[in-house]
Model the fold of this input.
Amino acid sequence: MKSFQFFLLIHKINLMPREYPNFANSPVYKVYATGLSLCGVKCLLKIGMLPIPMAILLVFYQILPVFCQTNLSTEATPNNYPAIFQLTPSLSNNTKKLKLKDIVFLVLANNIEIKNAYLDRIVQRGELAVAEDKFNPDFTPTLSLSTNKLGESTNTNSNIDAKVVMKIPTGAEISFGWSGNTQINNINNNSFDQNLQLSFRQPLLRGGGIRVNKASIELARITEQSNIISLKSILADTITKSILAYRDLLQAQERVKIEELSLKNAQESLEVTKALIAAGRRAPVEIVQEEANIANRRVSLLAAQNSLESSKLALLAILDIDKNTNIEAADIPTVERVQLDLENLKQTAVKNQPSYLQSLLNLESNRIGLILAKDERRWDLNFNVDISDGNNQDNDARAGLTMTRTIGDLSLQQRVEQARINLKKSQNNFKDINENLDIELQDQIRNVNLSFSQLELARQATQLSKKQLDIEQQKQRLGGRTRVIDIVNFQNSLVQAQNAELSATIQYLNALTALDQFLGTTLQTWQIKIEGGSEGGSERGRE
Done:
């Protein structure tokens, strides 16, 4: 009689999909169909009414159609990238999907710090032009007109002066002047006078020599190179900051997807547990653990959503665009091992590393500063020549030497000592930077390789956690001996593994970006060119 009742119950459940189509895809139906079918077959075997081979076929007949109606959760992802990086379609039509190259373009176009850096470049280029104009002649014209009346006499005077001054690299200064004076009065006593003057001054000790006189131009050019390096550093730092913020946004997006999927799995597991409890195969108390797990998953999802909004605002602040813009990271990161060669990277760093290049410029600048300080301590000995010629006077030519010296001025010697100390300090700094370049570069390479190793381990951990959960869930659906607490723990382990893989992926990509910034090749990577740099081209950065 009991076996007949089991057959009727199995038959009734098999008819449910025809009467209630939506019920066929629910986990409750799967559990009922599976559990009751197994119970019925077990009872028939026990009373001897069913042979063992027939029982096996009957079990497969009852179970297989149920689980073939929908795909299992272990179905493979239809691409070669981890499922945690698959982008979900946006729910808002106003969402701006931005790729990484879009972020770089926007930060170059809108960032305030970059705009101010380019404004500073206008002044800096003007300062270099002034310094390089040192040996070009200066022309100064002067025109004056005056009139006066004394009694019946009215006089009108006009003066025209022109002066040209030019410095030459030896330190000499050549001055040429011409002046003309015209007087007109009403008594017809008109006159015109003109005068020519030529002077030459050549320092023989202090201020003399090509090296000393070209030092100011060399210092200006060194300053210009330093300004270009500073501009590159600002660009590279800002671009790197925007890239890291973009990946933070990407990580926050993927974390939300992980938490949503985890919550969905927990809800499905709760439905299965309810079905098992209704079938009498689980104790009602076990539902408490499932409900607590769902509550925890909702808390984690809320935290992930809050982190996502925070990441959006942080990126919008760097891009300096409307804070109400709804943005979404649309770039799927490509994670591949990058082979790094220490010697090649060291040569690249020597050519592009900002700190190394700045130390070289400081060293050269302090060498020139010591030359100028020693020159100020020398005697002031000048050779002077003056020639004048006027139409109302004889020619006048003079030549002579002038020598001066300030006695007792200790500041001259103090400036020499200060310049010598500055040079020594810059030499020490250059030596230290050069020695640490290898150490820092090796540390950067080690960090990149370690990050990729962690990523590989995290991928393996995710796959194993997923397999563990799938096995336990299948055992639960088949009515096997599995505890609810075990499924909850496996679900939590999978979430942790997925988040760990996501963090390891972002960490590896950030390590490569940090290496790029350390080498000073960020602008080359993004094909950004500035005027006066090694890349050449237009100064306004662009992708």
